[in-house]
Design a protein that fits this description.
about 260 residues, mainly alpha, 12 helices, about 0% strand, globular, ABC_TroCD
Amino acid sequence: MPDFLLYALIAGLGLALVAGPLGSFVVWRRMAYFGDTLAHSALLGVALGMLLQVNLTLAVTAGCVLLAVLLVAMQNRKWLASDTLLGILAHSTLSLGLVVLALTESVRVDLLAYLFGDLLAITRGDLAWMLGGLAIVMVLLAWLWRPLLSVTVHEELARVEGLPVSGIRLALMLLIAIVIAVAMKVVGVLLITSLLIIPPAAAQRHARTPEQMALGASALGCLAVLGGLALSWNLDTPAGPSIVVSAAGLFMLSLLVPRRQ
């Protein structure tokens, strides 16, 4: 197997393993639009990283984390409805990133690689950054699993039981921000949220417990990565969109299987 294909396979499978359980919370808490907003802000992080000549992965991670904190702060103040606020920030950060890139005349950027991913161009250094970030997210997610479940099932009851609901909610948003930042190379800014939503949505129909849904989502995500890379290799299609198409195909197949009661 060529090195570039091996790196792509490892990166895609690593992302799928983490996106399964984390995406389950995105589905349960109906946070898909929040994920899109963070994904759009990633392009602004790319633009600022190039402008300031700093590591792009660090710049994107810092940008996503700062936006997640800003979102939580603004939602707590309740200036606007959450969906309105997310819509404003999503399109504003994406457009601002494009404007900054256009003004940076000394830098030539392949926008398609950032918008739709360039999985087959991942280097050994990119892979190390990605696996390190995903490992941190997985450890934190395992540690916060029970509190996150409690807050998701019944937020007021969790507050009565003494759980720091605001802190747990912020932690979940920060975990999503980190995954989006490190996953940008795999499926791109515009498609990142699909890996956080489609496999968990397919697994939800046939799972009896939260843990079953998380494991099923990871398994389906891995199958989508394998199918997408096979499609890209044989038909010379873009790797990121091919993975999303594979995930969508698995979701359609899940609809044909009778739902477990």
